[in-house]
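TASK: fixed-backbone design
INPUT:
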């Protein structure tokens, strides 16, 4: 019976350490994510033109007339 209580105590301590480490990792990841969002907000006004994608297809492209041959 004494060994069972000791085993339960050790398991409880190990589980506590695991959950604390997991909580710490979540806080670090959340902090890095928030800092990354804040960093990206600084460039949101200046660089918004660079983020627009221009797409088209071959049917709606500009035509080239009298192109010189080299």
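OUTPUT:
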């Amino acid at each position: 019976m004494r060994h069972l209580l000791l085993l339960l105590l050790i398991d409880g301590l190990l589980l506590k350490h695991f959950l604390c480490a997991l909580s710490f990792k979540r806080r670090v990841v959340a902090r890095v994510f928030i800092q990354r969002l804040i960093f990206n907000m600084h460039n949101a006004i200046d660089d918004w033109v660079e983020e627009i994608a221009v797409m088209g297809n071959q049917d709606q492209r500009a035509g080239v007339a009298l192109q010189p041959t080299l």
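COMMENT: The longest helix spans residues 2-42.
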